[in-house]
């Protein structure tokens, strides 16, 4: 069972590396012009220049003539909150009228609003909503995704979210990582007993989630008025004891110490990074922790973009992700994320594409199976219509240049 792609104008993102890309390597996106690619089952079996293709298309089960379009690895979205209930456009309008994200959160809106909705929603309905969102993202070229809990904030709600993430993985056949984010906010009942909620996370939620094998990672929203660096370290340490590696929400609204806390607990990634000082940048550059930037969240909250140029120039390993969620990024469109990283943060197109593919895969510890074009990797591919150069992709922001998406070798 095999599939042949011919007349690929540009086959971009050819890479066998294993380590995250940083510095000059982040700006290199190796490509082959006028290429073919062969898929066997769900994997890339071979590729090369058209002139060296020995077989005839008739020898294959199926054949796609790419007509000069560009083929690149599907997006790896390493930070989403894809499972949520309903939407929050009323808060969006409040923000237009001048109310801030922090003010909305303080009056019980924001994350707590989504938590109330989620706890009123059945698992089947949550799955239905999540599946609709995932279908849209697949068509926009997302091939691998991470999904967090964090809108339950109750034992049952958190378990339900993670079970829905598992069902999404099973139904889609996609590589899906799941992350336990019970420490997303303090629920209203624990407003005056924060310690009690942390005990609930550590003593009840974590053991049940670990026993059911529902999560790969543990996450904490380390932020002023949410979880302190000390609380973050305690929760991550407890997560590690259950086999969950940390990845964090850090330095979004303030210079919170989250980056250093994350590095200290060996976090795979620290995400957001809108609010960075020199100490946090230096610490990140000297660590093995990925810095994951979420430009659409900064854009939607009308915050200054993450200092991506300073981070990249300091030698940090950077990934880009959508943060898809109902409060700060109601879009999971990675094409837009890549454009916005170039427009708002001055990443070069090659840097942004690497950050949204190979480094995203590294942030999920899945660089052996996705994130680049290499023999043996999953055949998760985006085929664009013919474009004059790779830079045209982020340049033509808002246009859908995708002609076809193949996930696990199957055209959608
Ligand atoms: O990553 N910052 C924390 N969590 C989400 C937003 C959650 C929400 O507003 O619902 C984020 O931006
Ligand atoms: Fe997030």
From TrEMBL:
The keyword Iron applies. Its EC number is 3.5.2.7. Its main location: cytoplasm. Its cofactor is Zn(2+); Fe(3+). Residues 71-392 form the Amidohydrolase-related domain. The keyword NAD does not apply. Zn(2+) binds at residues 79, 81, 249, 323. Pfam families: Amidohydro_1. Coiled coil: none annotated. It comes from the Bacteria. 4-imidazolone-5-propanoate binds at residues 88, 151, 184, 252, 328. InterPro entries: Amidohydro-rel, HutI, Metal-dep_hydrolase_composite, Metal_Hydrolase. Belongs to the metallo-dependent hydrolases superfamily. HutI family. This is Imidazolonepropionase.
